[in-house]
Amino acid sequence: MVDKGDLLEPFPDSKISTTALTDLESHDAILTAIPVMAEEQGPMELSDRVVVQTEAVAIVAVYEDDEGWYVAERVDGTDRENDAVFQEAMVAAQGDSELVESPAESDA
């Protein structure tokens, strides 16, 4: 099992590239590692907010210049469908944004 601290260990001390997130997904324990939003900086797309999911947990990790990477939200995946955990993490990652429908809205 990979815990939330281990999930942030490979992250650089800066925003992370979408390429690095794709590489992270190749790890057997990682189901999903995606940027919430990415911005182009030169030839790369970088993100300061990502969702990383394993069988046990999904986290929303945020990078801030003065703090580095930290876990802003944690969604427990124990005894839950992976899709439901992922959706909850994405809703948490979006905050007040309307890019992702909340579970209550999608059930209506």
**DSSP E strands, number:** 7
* Share of residues in strands: 25-35%
Radius of gyration: 14 Å
Given helix and strand content, the structural type is alpha+beta
Low-confidence stretches: none
Give the CA-CA distance, first to last residue: 35 Å
Write down the overall mean pLDDT: 85
Largest sheet: 4 strands, antiparallel
Helical percentage: 25-40%
Q: What letter string, H or E per element, gives the SSE order?
A: HEHEEEEEEHH
- Biggest sheet strand order reads 2-5-6-7
User: Number of helical segments?
Assistant: 4
**Overall body shape:** globular
Number of domains: 1
InterPro entries: DUF7964
Protein name: DUF7964 domain-containing protein
Domain DUF7964: 7-91
Pfam family, one: DUF7964
Topology of this structure?
Elements: H1 4-8, E1 16-17, H2 18-25, E2 32-35, E3 39-41, E4 44-47, E5 49-53, E6 57-64, E7 68-76, H3 82-94, H4 103-107
Antiparallel strand pairs: 1-4, 2-5, 3-4, 5-6, 6-7
